[in-house]
């Protein structure tokens, strides 16, 4: 065997950022985004522009991080220095000029104009700083229509942090106020109605009666738009049809669901792509559209078309790990484990927040006795030591194989973590 030499002298290893820092950098310090980031990062860039430039438009951003998103990405290797719950808590030496500007705007928040306050709340919401947002409500007045959207964002932040029925209802009332305000634009009022539709279609506020009520409010606002005359109206109409399709979907009406999603897709694909803003908004809209269409096709039993939509989504947004996981799930449903494994490993290579889940799911593509299964579960645990599911599967594997050492370790880790659990779907990045 070849002799491998090394010295006894050691030196501290330099800090090497993970791939998360490159792909998701604006979330860490508002540094420049990667050349090809996930689509939701583009929305964050638009929010930064609105804070930096008073003349920049506040664009419709169809994405909000889940309440635990920041924890997920900063828990990744070498990211602990960025694990702050308030922008002002980031050490000075880690701040970019844009991050410092956000801190300055927060310090001046009570004295900012309502449009400037709105830009700050939009950026904080896009970054996932919900705790910080809850403190801003006292500086906003419900008597000024220009403050209503900011108040709705603050109410959503409280709901995300507290997760109580009272906080959720406060968020609903704030959105209802926006939808009913005649002084606000039609698109703004429609966006509030759409959010109310989504909130009452799934999750703790799910209600068929309330869903129907808010769909009718959305219908009334959408009828006032002119998609053929303005591309932002066309974007809003695409989003509208995607949202209200929840109503027939939950009622089991395949034909009507498909009809409404066909309309959403037509408007989405016809959006212009000539400027940076048009490209970004089109991109952010096509992601949830393709995702929804894939879910719809799978629900209707057409797995081939479901896979085609999911595969297109991985090509449209290749740096978002969630897209590859959804494709892998569909391949598993088609009993194609090797194709599913390729998709899951593509997601794992993109780092947090989906790497642990991707490794965990990739273990399902192997037989119980396959060494890959153990390796994948170990990688899932290494990516996220707080994840319970990989440990539970490792414990099951250890019991089957009679591996007492692994069984004891996995059982001990599980016991230490069981007191505080959450689901990956609730804590990561949803497209709403």
Can you summarize this structure?
With about 425 residues, the chain is mainly alpha-helical. The chain has helices spanning about 20-25, 25-30, 40-50, 70-75, 95-105, 115-125, 130-135, 150-160, 165-180, 185-200, 210-220, 230-245, 245-250, 255-270, 275-300, 305-315, 320-335, 335-350, 355-360, 370-385, 390-400, 405-415, 425.
Outline type: globular
Low-confidence stretches: 424-432
Kindly report the average pLDDT value.
90
The major beta sheet can be summarized as: none
Instruction: Bin the helical content.
Output: 55-70%
| Secondary-structure element pattern, one letter each | HHHHHHHHHHHHHHHHHHHHHHH
Strand content: under 5%
What is the radius of gyration?
23 Å
Number of strands: 0
Please, how many helices?
Answer: 23
Question: Structural class given helices, strands, pairing?
Answer: mainly alpha
Straight-line N-to-C gap: 57 Å
């Amino acid at each position: 065997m070849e002799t491998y030499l090394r010295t006894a002298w050691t030196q501290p290893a330099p800090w090497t950022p993970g791939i998360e820092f490159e792909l998701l950098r604006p979330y860490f310090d508002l540094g420049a985004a990667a050349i090809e980031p996930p689509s939701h990062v583009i929305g964050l860039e638009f929010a930064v522009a609105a804070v930096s430039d008073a003349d920049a438009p506040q664009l419709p951003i169809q994405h909000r991080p889940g309440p635990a998103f920041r924890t997920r990405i900063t828990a990744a290797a070498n990211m602990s220095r960025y694990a702050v719950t308030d922008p002002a808590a980031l050490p000075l030496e880690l701040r970019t000029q844009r991050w410092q500007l956000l801190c300055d705007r927060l310090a001046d928040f009570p004295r900012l104009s309502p449009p400037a306050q709105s830009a700050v709340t939009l950026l904080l919401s896009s970054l996932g700083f919900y705790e910080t947002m809850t403190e801003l409500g006292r500086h906003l007045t419900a008597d000024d229509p220009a403050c209503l959207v900011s108040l709705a964002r603050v109410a959503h932040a409280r709901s995300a942090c507290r997760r109580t029925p009272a906080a959720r209802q406060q968020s609903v009332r704030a959105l209802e106020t926006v939808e009913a305000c005649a002084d606000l634009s039609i698109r703004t009022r429609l966006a509030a109605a759409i959010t109310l539709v989504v909130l009452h279609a799934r999750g703790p506020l799910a209600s068929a009666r309330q869903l129907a009520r808010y769909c009718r409010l959305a219908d009334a606002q959408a009828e006032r738009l002119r998609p053929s005359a303005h591309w932002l109206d066309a974007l809003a109409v695409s989003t509208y049809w995607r949202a209200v399709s929840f109503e027939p979907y939950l009622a089991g009406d395949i034909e009507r669901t498909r009809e409404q999603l066909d309309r959403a897709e037509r408007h989405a694909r016809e959006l212009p792509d000539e400027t940076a803003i048009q490209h970004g908004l089109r991109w952010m809209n096509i992601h949830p559209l393709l995702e929804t269409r894939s879910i719809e096709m799978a629900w209707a039993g057409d797995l081939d078309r479901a896979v085609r939509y999911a595969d297109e989504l991985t090509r449209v947004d290749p740096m978002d790990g969630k897209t590859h996981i959804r494709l892998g799930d569909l391949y598993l449903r088609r009993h194609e484990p090797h194709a599913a494994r390729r998709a899951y490993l593509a997601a794992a290579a993109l780092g947090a927040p989906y790497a642990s889940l991707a490794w965990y799911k990739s273990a399902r593509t192997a037989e119980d006795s396959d060494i890959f299964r153990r390796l994948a579960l170990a990688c899932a645990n290494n990516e996220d030591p707080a994840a319970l599911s990989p440990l539970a599967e490792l414990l099951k594997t250890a019991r089957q194989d009679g591996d007492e050492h692994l069984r004891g370790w996995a059982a001990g880790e599980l016991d230490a973590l069981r007191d505080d659990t959450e689901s990956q779907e609730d804590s990561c990045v949803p497209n709403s």
